[in-house]
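Sequence only, no structure available. Ideas?
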Amino acid sequence: MTTAESLMSPELFFLGIDGGGSKTTAVVVDSQGHICGHGRAGSANHHTVGLETAVDHLTEAAVQASHSAGSPTPLSAAWIGVAGLDSPADHELLLPKLLPLASSIRLTNDADLVLSALDSAVGVALIAGTGAIALGRDRSGIRKRASGWGHMMGDEGSGYYIGSQALQAVVRAIDGRGQSTPLVEGLVSYWKLSRPDDLLHQVYHRADKTDIARLSPLVFETAQAGDPVAQGIVRRAAKELALAALTVGRGLNFSGEELPLALGGSLLLHQAGYREAILRAIRREQPLRDVVLAAEPAQSAARAARQLQGNLAAW
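Reply:
I predicted one. Tokens follow.
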């Protein structure tokens, strides 16, 4: 390209933002998909930190990334995923305040960003961290989701689910109503309790949802050591996540064909044995292709914004 042509055709840049409940990450890529800039800020969940703070954090991360890329806002296109974006009202509240960031914007829940790791964002995304959800989109644009109902009504297969199942198994073992398990000693040691009965005060007066979810590594370790109680918990959790992914796939136009699958969330990214158990369960019912670990949602979102430019807002 000549100098004159370069001046007439400025470089295009694309933004991806993963606005989570604890932190916000932004990535800018160029027209070839190469990473050019990064940005970070605090929580983007407006239900938790307030609308003004959430918008400030999203904007701060985007501006950092665009400045490091050498391209001021507005960028060509952006895919922005935000925790707590669960209704049309949330969308209408946030979108107008983010319009200065890019000429074309796709604003979704942060869970949708895992789909951006798949070609044309078509397929199923399965996410398991503290919570769990499966969602997907087929080539005709039909969308479906399963699970993701929160820890009180669902999120089967999540860290919270595994932790809560472990607590139930432990109290049954303490009472003698259930099978003995080293999870009893494991939980007492993990929480530095004087005796098993102290679990009552710990769970109801000290622990929150995240604390319960953080018990899941202990369950995985105990299962790997051969405890049948812990193994049963992990097995049931894997079956639940497989069921959620298969339910979404069946509700979309993927019957009789290989299912593109993206995996996200700390459990699926970092617990390899758990991930493989889930994939085996899915493959018993439906063949898979393009299984992708979405370790950097902001990065894949930026590249998807580049790929879907012009059709991003309608996606």
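DSSP finds 13 helices and ten strands in the chain.
Hope that gets you unstuck.
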